[in-house]
Amino acid sequence: MKNGQTKLIKPQFSHILSPKDTEFFLFPVYEHFLGRPFHQQLCMCDWNVELIRTDFAKNIIASAVSRRTARNRQIKITETELLIRLTGGVFVHVANSASQVFASTQKLALETIDLLASRYVKKAGCEPHFYLITWKCDDLALRPVSLGEAWRLDEAEMELHYGSEFPQWHQELSRRLTTRKSGVTLLRGDPGTGKTTYLRHLIVSLNETHRFLYLPLNNGWMLGGFNSVEFWHKQKQLDPDRKLVVIIEDAEEFLIERTQSQETNHVSDLLNIGDGLMGDYLQLHLICTINCPLNVLDKAVTRPGRLLAYRQFRRLSSDHAQRIAKAKGLVIPEQDNYSLAEIYNGESVFDENGCRRPIGFAV
Length: 363
Fold this sequence. Notes:
Layout (H helix, E strand, L loop, with lengths): L26 H7 L5 E5 L5 H7 L4 E10 L5 E12 L3 E5 L4 E5 L2 H15 L8 E8 L2 E8 L8 H8 L3 H14 L3 E7 L5 H11 L4 E5 L14 H10 L4 E6 L3 H4 L10 H10 L1 H6 L1 E7 L16 E7 L2 E2 H11 L8 E2 L1 H6 L18
Parallel strand pairs: 6-9, 8-11, 8-12, 9-10, 10-11
Antiparallel strand pairs: 1-5, 2-3, 3-4, 4-5, 6-7, 13-14
């Protein structure tokens, strides 16, 4: 090398990535497009990965399968990823909840993802389901969770478990979730009083017209995070004909009154996304379940006209509980009042140490 000249060294991704890195799976893509123009198209939907695996078996250059042991000790596949190389230097990264295409031109990337989506995205309106929002590969992703028709409650079942006026309240909530562009709904009740069971029924009954997302508490930051706006925008674009509904269980953390010492204001984030300017743009509904008394919530939450709907899920009297037990062929111990969980599980929702047993979508 002569004086004054600089030698350009082509970087080697293999020197900086290891199989434990999340980006290692896309290593062949980075190597192929190194120093070349490339364009990416992402589609976050429920993909039929197994059909893609079958149709593109000869083109798969990498795969990853996650498994877990279910309660019955059977091995269950929870996530599958494929990396496919097509002709013309087009790469497709396929996962259950999101797939992306890498190509040399924007037009080619868009045409490829559209063609794949038309053939391999699972059609809405088949099996009722909701989407669990997860954090994967430094990005937000969706994991579909199926719900069977067994969770659908007819009018008689709703009256039996929740009271004679409940079917009418359910119809009114369904109407508002359909006709209103956005809003916040609160379901309040002690643990085990049937809030989650009702939410499962709501998802099943509105599956064809609404798209339900479940937001775990540890991802609550995304309600107001600036880098999550694009995620919500994509959700709106994915299925514009269906209403978007986000569910947060045990949402007290986001709704209790703020103190001056607290740096973040989850209340304003939540209300803005469900009932503010952001809600006007995203047009999504928030349904929050809480266990705490209403008087500890921020006053902005319960202000007249703020809520789309509110429902109190109460513990049941002994007479009401005995009616359910007789209808279902159950034997329950004598006590003053019951939760639905105590009627069906035969035990308190709290263990002997006073700790709450797992209840809800997390179970």
